[in-house]
Each structure stands twice: as C-alpha cells, then as structure tokens.
Amino acid sequence: MKPFFSIVVPCCDVEPYLRACLESVLRDPFTDWECILGVETSKDGTEEIVREYVAKDPRFRMFTGPRSGSCSASRNTGVDMATGEYVIFLDGDDTIAEGSLQRIHDRIAERPGADIYPCAMPVIDEVHGGNAPLRDNYPPDFNGELDGPSATLMIYTRRRDPCPMLQLSVFRRGHLVSNGLKCLHGMKRQDSEFAPRALYLAKRVIPIHVPYYLYRIRAGSISTLAKKTDYFLKDYAAILKSLLAFHAKVCREPGFDRRISAFWSRHWLNWICYYWFAPRVIRGTPRERRVETLRQLFADGFGDFDAITRAATAQRRVASLFVKLFVRHPSMAWLADAFFRRAYFPLTELRDRLHANAAAQS
C-alpha cells in the first residue's frame, strides 16, 4: 500500500544535525510515510547515520551519489523514487515541528487532491541569534482555494518572498511528475527557479498555514558560507535564464494574466540589477567575471529578456538597455556601471525612503 507522505531528505555533511532531523519524523504521531534519504559523498559520518536508520526502520530508504554542492540531484532522484501521494522536502540539517505531519494530514484530508498545500515555517537563526518571524506567504486568515496564477498574484501582491522555499509547501507527487518539475542540477538557490514554475502550473493551491518545518540558518550552510559577491553569479545566470524562458512560454498562452509579467519582471529584473550591478558588486567582482556570467544568461539571445522587459516599469526598461550594453559592448561596460552606481541605485534608495516615510505617516 502506498504511503500518504514521501519525505525526501538530501544529506551531505550534516552529521551534527541528522539524528535530530530523522527523530523529528519518527516522533510524529502520524506514521503513514516513507523517508527517502539521498546521501552525497560526505566528509563526516552522515552516511553511517543514514544506514543505521535504514537498518532499524523499513520506512527509511536511501540512495547514494557523488558530491554535487547542491540539493537538486537528491531531490530529483527522491521524487522519482517516491511512492507516496504527497511529497515533503526536508533538509538533513533541519527538523519538523512536533505533531506537524498529523496536522498536515488532517488538513489535507478535509480538502484532498490539491497540487500544493503551502504551510508556514518557523526560522531558527543560529548565525544572528534568536528566531526570525514566522514565514507564511499567504494571509493567515485566508482559507480559500486558488489556482496557480491566482496564488502567484497573491504572493507577489503581499510583497512576500515570491519564490517560496520548497520546504514551505507539501506537493502532490502527480503535479511534480506530470509537469516535469525538476530542480536544476548542481544549482545553489535552486528554489528560486523551481518554486515559481511549480506554483504557476498548479491547478489547485490550498494554503493551510500549519507551522511545521523548522528551518535552520547555520554557520556552515551553503548560503552563510557565501562571502564573495560573485559566489552565486553562475547559478543565478542559469536560474534566470530558465525563468525568463518559462515566462516567454507561458505569456503566449490564452488567458495569461499580464499582471503576472509585471510582478515577475519587478523581481527578476531586480535580481539582475542587484547581483551584477549593485555598488558592492561592482567594487568586489571583476568586470570580466560579470560579463562572462551575464553572457551565460543571454547565451540564446535577448528575446526572453525583451519579453519580460516589456512588462517592466520605465526605470527598469532603461536599466535593461544598460544591461544589454554591458553584455554586447564590453568596451562600454564602464558606462553601464556608472549608470547603476550614480543613477539607478541612488534613485531606487530615494524612492524606498519616500515609501517608508509615507508608510510611517499613514
């Protein structure tokens, strides 16, 4: 008989946290699950711990793979191996809240069959100390049902994270498989590419607001180890290339809501501006490196970029011209840098201050 949940856990160099992760699953009163553990070559005792749990409980299954520097391969293989109706993504250095599987099951049983059930996420910040605010991308009092485009608009309108982490939601496995939803292999920050596509393509989205995933911000994670300004540039180039191509495809479909283009353009064009042209990036990353990675983003030309730029504000459309100048004419790249350093970002900061003052006075 198929389990209700398939819990997919990438594991690499997480020995200090892994027992707590797996015990949090075992302690839950809901028992109809399988846990698929993807072990990449580790420098510590991660694999030994996984084998221990596999040996003592048949609900734990494992597979191994080479070290890739990303959760993508383990997540993709885990979904392929899964037999459950719903997929939960859990990282090996995190835990789930006590009793949360039971609560999620009960909420799904009330309204079964949705493609995505967004939950809420308590955050434990070990780097800065204390706990961050609870993450929930939907209004806490919203108990309705949405399709993917409507859910996309709701998230962006609330100005929450428009690319919710995979761990924030429970996915119907059939939704992932039928739409070919995979994480980009070898990518860090792969949620940023996966989540917008998975959400938009969903037929039914039912936010259930259950706080279940205890997300840990720790000193040794990929994100906190990223000190150099160009650490993620190559990955973000691949992520944005995929997202721009996805927009170019869906925006031609009948009934496409143009407001989605406007929201996506606001965030994705901002990523390009901030990751390649923010003053600290210009100071800290060689221009040749920025040109090289942007050329990877535009390896197939500017058609997809132009498609989303048409939905942007006038300020971002002007910025897009300087982005293209930077890529097409490296000898004029200094001019693009000067525009962002002396015009774009000072105007953006002024606008943000004015909005903040207006909000404080209202």
Describe the structure.
The chain has helices spanning 15-26, 46-56, 72-81, 100-110, 148-157, 173-178, 191-201, 222-225, 233-250, 258-277, 279-284, 287-297, 303-309, 314-328, 333-361; strands at 5-11, 33-40, 60-65, 86-89, 95-96, 116-118, 121-125, 131-135, 169-172, 213-217. The protein has 2 domains: 5-225, Spore Coat Polysaccharide Biosynthesis Protein SpsA, Chain A (Alpha-Beta Complex); 233-361, no CATH class. It has a 6-stranded mixed sheet, with helices on both faces. A 4-stranded mixed sheet has the order 5-10-7-8. The protein is of the alpha/beta class. It is globular, with a radius of gyration of 21 Å.
Show the helix and strand layout.
Layout: E1 5-11, H1 15-26, E2 33-40, H2 46-56, E3 60-65, H3 72-81, E4 86-89, E5 95-96, H4 100-110, E6 116-118, E7 121-125, E8 131-135, H5 148-157, E9 169-172, H6 173-178, H7 191-201, E10 213-217, H8 222-225, H9 233-250, H10 258-277, H11 279-284, H12 287-297, H13 303-309, H14 314-328, H15 333-361
Parallel strand pairs: 1-2, 1-4, 2-3, 7-10
Antiparallel strand pairs: 4-9, 5-10, 6-9, 7-8
Helix pairs in contact: 1-2, 5-7, 5-10, 7-9, 9-10, 9-12, 9-13, 10-14, 14-15
Topology pattern, helix = H, strand = E: EHEHEHEEHEEEHEHHEHHHHHHHH
CA-atom Rg in angstroms? 21 Å
Amino-to-carboxy terminus distance? 57 Å
Mean pLDDT: 90
Which blocks of ≥5 consecutive residues have pLDDT under 50? none
